[in-house]
Amino acid sequence: MTTWTERLAQLDIALPPVAAPVAAYVPAVRVGNQVWTSGQLPLVQGSLPATGKVGAEVSAEQAADLARQCALNALAAVDDLVGIDNVARVIKLVGFVSSAPDFTGQPGVINGASELIGEVFGDAGEHARSAVGVTALPLDAPVELELVVELTSGLDS
């Protein structure tokens, strides 16, 4: 069986370093056989590639790419805490989209993250999801993402 690390390599995807928290929290927490990530911004090497509202300063297509980066950052947080190969499945993805008042394409934006999860995990990546429009996000980020994963039963507590 191919490991998730091997699958990432097949897809030519490298997990980034874990993004440093921008306030008083940790990137991810393990609870029993689950890992819950904190909200992950689309940080690349410590900075945001774009800021502003989706549907105004940021296009939906650009925001979908940023949502993909959020998912990579979330996976990096999981990997750092427990090792990505210990993930049994993805349970839930929650995406927040900083939206212009008339923007209603939040599901399409968060597809950028969901599609990455599907590429990496296949059937084990089928997840419940919320895509929520919000007025503003930290650092004026266009998107933010939370991820919940289930761990394999063989992982020591």
Describe the structure.
By secondary structure, this protein is α+β, with helices and mostly antiparallel strands. It has a single domain, classed as RutC-like (60s Ribosomal Protein L30, Chain: A), CATH 3.30.1330.40. Helices cover 29% and strands 23% of the residues. It is built from 3 helices and 5 strands; from the N terminus they run αββαβαββ. The protein has helices spanning 4-10, 60-82, 106-121; strands spanning 28-31, 34-37, 87-98, 128-134, 143-151. It has a 5-stranded mixed β-sheet, covered by helices on one side. Helix 2 (60-82) crosses helix 3. The model has no long low-confidence stretch (mean pLDDT 96). It comes from Corynebacterium timonense. This is Enamine deaminase RidA, house cleaning of reactive enamine intermediates, YjgF/YER057c/UK114 family.
What labels would you give this structure?
157 residues, alpha+beta, 60s Ribosomal Protein L30, Chain: A, five-stranded mixed β-sheet, 3 helices, 29% helix, 23% strand, Endoribo_LPSP/chorism_mut-like, Enamine deaminase RidA, house cleaning of reactive enamine intermediates, YjgF/YER057c/UK114 family, RutC-like_sf
Fold blueprint:
Blueprint lengths: L3 H7 L17 E4 L2 E4 L22 H23 L4 E12 L7 H16 L6 E7 L8 E9 L6
Parallel strand pairs: 3-4
Antiparallel strand pairs: 1-2, 2-5, 3-5
